[in-house]
Amino acid sequence: MDLNAELKDTLSRTADWLADTRDPWWILGSAAIALIGVNLNGVRDIDVLVSEQDARDLMTRHRLENQSDGGTERYHSNTFLLPELGPYRVEVMAGYKIRRNDEWENVWPRTRVAAEVAGSILWVPEAGEQIDILRRLNRPKDRSRIELIKTTI
């Protein structure tokens, strides 16, 4: 896994920030793909999925406001937090849903794979489940990422 120092630092801080959560959590998106060893040519942010209860607890503990704006036609989350944890933007979501076939589907991964970064453990869905989430999103960048995962893993 080839991650730059700033990304490693932000990922490590993210894991520390999530250490007191009660429920499972996951890194999603480009950071998760990088954490399974796929070279994406750049991670722009770190997407984190937590439970609704953990999101409420994190909001209280860290005095954060819910920044959820209703999302887009394709996806939304009930809670959207923006903690400042390092040089990379960290987006924490709860109640994350993807619209498919005119219905909203909850996103809550079934698998958790540990990835170690700078002595911290981060959790990601396994590669096949990441592909499934990307298929559900079905944006051009998601289709490209699916091919990268398939050719790397």
List the helices and strands and how they pair.
Blueprint: H1 5-17, E1 26-28, H2 29-35, E2 45-49, H3 52-62, E3 75-81, E4 89-100, E5 103-106, E6 113-117, E7 120-124, H4 127-137, H5 140-152
Parallel strand pairs: 2-4
Antiparallel strand pairs: 1-2, 3-4, 4-5, 6-7
Helix pairs in contact: 4-5
Q: Terminal Cα separation, in Å? A: 12 Å
Number of helices: 5
SS class: alpha+beta
How confident is the prediction overall: mean pLDDT?
Answer: 94
Strand content: 25-35%
User: What is the β-strand count?
Assistant: 7
Radius of gyration computed on alpha carbons: 15 Å
Run of helices and strands: HEHEHEEEEEHH
Largest sheet descriptor: 5 strands, mixed
Shape designation: globular
Low-confidence region ranges: none
Fraction in helix:
25-40%
Written overview of the protein:
By secondary structure, the protein is of the alpha+beta class. It is built from 5 helices and 7 strands. Strands 1, 2, 3, 4 and 5 form a 5-stranded mixed beta sheet that branches. A two-stranded antiparallel ribbon has the order 6-7. α4 runs antiparallel to α5. The longest helix has 13 residues, at 5-17. It is globular, with a radius of gyration of 15 Å.
